Each structure stands twice: as structure tokens, then as C-alpha cells.
Fold:
Amino acid sequence: MTAAISKAISTEPIPLVDLKAQYAAIRAQVDAAVQQVLDSTQFIMGPQVAAFEEAFADYCGVAHCVGVGSGTAALELALRALKIGPGDEVITVAHTFIATAETISAVGATPVFVDIDPQAYTLDPDALAAAIGPATRAVIPVHLYGQPADMTRINAVAKAHGLAVIEDAAQAHAATWQGRRTGGLADVACFSFYPGKNLGAYGDAGAVTTPRADIAERVRLLRNHGRRSKYVHDERGFGHRLDTLQAAVLSAKLPYLDEWTAARRRLARRYTEALAGHEVTLPHVAPGADPVWHLYVIRSAARDVLVDGLNRQRIGAGVHYPLPLHLQPAYADLGYKPGALPVTEAVAASCLSLPLYPEMGEARLLRVAEAVASLLEERVGV
Ligand SMILES: *Cc1c(COP(=O)(O)O)cnc(C)c1O
Structure:
């Protein structure tokens, strides 16, 4: 690297994710795909939607993919396809983005929050077993930060109790559990293509994948106003279709996902090497898991000092997530008290996400790692 570049990196802002760098690298392919839709004017359910669905199902190694309007729509339609509604309980984690639980509420069911594994930060299978009651119908493990949940044990517990399993794979495109990709590890899986996700559209988009033809068929019906033909509505559905322009963007980007995932894995390894020996808890990779590092999350007792210090140096550190769902004002009516989920609460109080995106490069990463190290040393010195 030249001195000039290295000097630029030593002062420029480093965002948590940089969507501009990625677009610059694939501009020709994306622009051509978008132009094709504009020229065809088939903005609703154009052929690009089915083409992407087929490509993404193949990619995940699962029989069916149904494109929908967002990750949130994917979760809601998966729950509705399973006929989960009022009077039902769905077990999930509180350490996640709120859409995981909001959609359970949206269908009229009740979320039951359980604790996470202290190392993997994903749903604790023992906590799942302990929370099952007569109204429990399903469980939603979240592959948080791109780390697949322990699907072997979760599926075993679910099977023993007749529960449906819904993967929240919004952060885990291409992650594998025991060699198999997310999206095909349970009854049904939900993906988000929110722009900052590992595979991101240029607007809202999502997908439901499933090995089950019955679920795929119901999601297809529900996403498009319950209709099989133009003027006949078999049931009351929703306007949750995948936009044609977004499908075109996603198909243009999908061929790069393996390369981007490999870059994320290399960068995560470099963070782990660079931060080893410092007073922080580094990510733990469970045996059987091959994560895709949607986020690189460390823990520190000095979390707030670190986030402030990094942000002051224009390094985009974030917190995912500072206030767990069971303690959110939106869920006050469920009556959870602080202390109800001790592992979740401890992680929420100490976690921080460091910048990580495929185009980041080693020089930026080392600047972040050095900034973390020196902030920790300053603190020890005080
Ligand atoms: C992003 C996300 C969602 C929601 O996806 P949208 O496309 O934003 O609706 C759901 N669950 C998790 C874990 C997410 O990260």
C-alpha cells in the first residue's frame, strides 16, 4: 500500500457498512438489470421475480422460494401459512431485531421470550424445552449476526413436542450448520434483503424458503391478495409481493455472494487475530457452524466507552441490540421484569459491533482494531 492511501485510511470515516463501495464494484451489472425492468415496464410480478426465486432456492439448497416485500413480511406470512394465530404461543429470543417478535404479535399470537446461549448468542435449546406449554405452536430461532443457531437440538426439541420451526435467517444468507445452508434447515425460513444485509436489495425485499410445498403454496397465495387468478380471491391475503426491480437487483448480486461471504470470513479472522490478548470477549464459533459475519460482535465491560471513543474517531461502531425485546416499551404488556433473561441482558449491556463489509480491506480493519486496543489501554491506565 502506498503511503498516501494509508494516510487517507488513517483519518477517513469508517462506516459500519459501506453500500457505495459495493455498488461501485458491480454498477454495470446492476444498472443493466434495472434498465431491463424499466424498458419492459413489468414492475409487478415481472419474470425477474420467478427467476430470482429459482436462483435463490437453488443457492440455499431448498425446494421452494417465494419472494415477498421484506423480511418482516416473510416472517408474518410464514406464521400465517402455518395457521398460527390468537391463543397460540411462539417461542423466540429477545436478543434480536424487533420484527422477529412483532410478526408473532401481528398474527394475534403471543411471543414467549427465552434466553440465549452465552457463547453463540443464539436461542438456547434447553431454555426452549423449558418454556414449552400447552399453547406453544412454533419456535423461531434467529441466526443472529450470521451465526446459525443449533438447529440439530432445536429441531429435535421441536419434533418431540410437535412444534413448527421457523428460521429467522435475515442476517445469515449462506451460513451453514453442519454443512447445510440456512433456508433449508427447518419447516420454513425467512430472509431479509434490506440493503445492509449480506445480500441486500436497493429497497425493501425479502423471501420465504421452505422444503414444504404446502407452505410455499400458502405463502404464494397470501402475498398476492389470496388470489390464484386475477379476479378471484380464494381468501383474504396481503400486498406483500417482491418488487420486480428489487428481484432484478438481487439476481444481479447473487453471483457475488460467495465472494462477499469469503471476504467477510477473512476479515473476521483478521479481527480475531488482531484483538486476541485484549480485554474483550471475541466471537465464539460453535462446532458445526460456519457463520457469515453479518456483524462482528465483541463484548466488553467498557462497551459505552469503546463505542463513544470509536464514534469520536469516526469509526461506525454500533450496538445490536442495546435493549432486549422483553424490556422494550412496546412489550411492557407482557410483564417481563429486568432479570428475566440474564444472559440476554448481560450481552445487551456489553456487546458492540465493529465495522465489517466485504470491501473494507485490511488497512481499515487494522485501524479499527488498533483504535479498540488503545481505548482499552487508556481505560486501564485511568
Ligand atoms: C432485518 C431483520 C428482520 C426484518 O427484515 P426487514 O427486511 O427489515 O423487514 C427480521 N429479523 C432480523 C433478525 C433482522 O435482522
Remarks:
- The pocket of pyridoxal-5'-phosphate is lined by residues 70-72, 96-97, 99-100, 142, 168, 170-171, 192, 194, 204, 206 (CB under 6 Å).
- The mean pLDDT is 96.
